[in-house]
Amino acid sequence: MRKIILALLALSLSGLTLAQTAGAGHSERLASVLAAQPDEVQARYKYRHPQETLEFFGIEPGMTVVEALPGGGWYTRILLPYLGAGGQLIGADYALEMWPNFEFVTDEFFEERKTWVQDWMADAEEWRTDDSAEISAFVLGSVPESMHGTADAVLFIRALHNMARFESNGKFLTAAIRDSYDVLKPGGIVGIVQHHARDTMPDKWADGEMGYLKKGYVIEMMEAAGFELVGDSDMHANNKDQPTNEEFVWRLPPSYDGSRDNPELKAKMDAIGESNRMTLKFRKP
Question: From CA 151, how far away is CA 134, in angstroms rounded?
Answer without folding.
Answer: 13
